[in-house]
Write a structure and sequence with these properties.
mainly alpha; ribonucleoprotein; c-terminal domain of poly(a) binding protein; ribosomal protein; about 0% strand; structural constituent of ribosome; Ribosomal_protein_bL20_C; single chain; rRNA binding
């Protein structure tokens, strides 16, 4: 029985990878074996960094909340502890946005927990 080679699917797979490698430098954009490795590595980085982005933003929000709370005489940990004690359920993203863009509303939250 003759060997079956699915060239159509093979070409489609390669075109897909080479399309993803568009914009890469040198042989990474047009040589199949090099492009395949480059795209695989890029996908690993993008998967990892989608998770790291969440960590980075959380750290930024905490820094902003801490700075705003200290202006009113509280540390970040004291402020978050008092929020929990008073059953105020505002997440860090919202608190950081209030601290940056609406200081009077953030001050009202501080007054509520004191």
């Amino acid at each position: 029985m003759p060997r079956s080679v699915n060239s159509v699917a093979k070409r489609a797979r390669r075109k897909k990878v080479l399309k993803q490698a568009k914009g890469y430098f040198g042989r990474r954009k047009n040589v199949w074996t090099v492009a395949k490795n480059a795209v695989d590595k890029a996908m690993q980085y993008s998967y990892r960094d989608r998770r790291n982005k969440k960590r980075t933003f959380r750290a930024l929000w905490i820094t902003r909340i801490n700075a705003a709370a200290r202006e009113h005489g509280l540390s970040y940990s004291q402020f978050m502890g008092q929020l929990k004690a008073n059953d105020i359920e505002l997440n860090r993203k919202v608190l950081a946005d209030l601290a940056m863009n609406n200081p009077e509303a953030f001050k009202a939250v501080i007054e509520k927990v004191k």
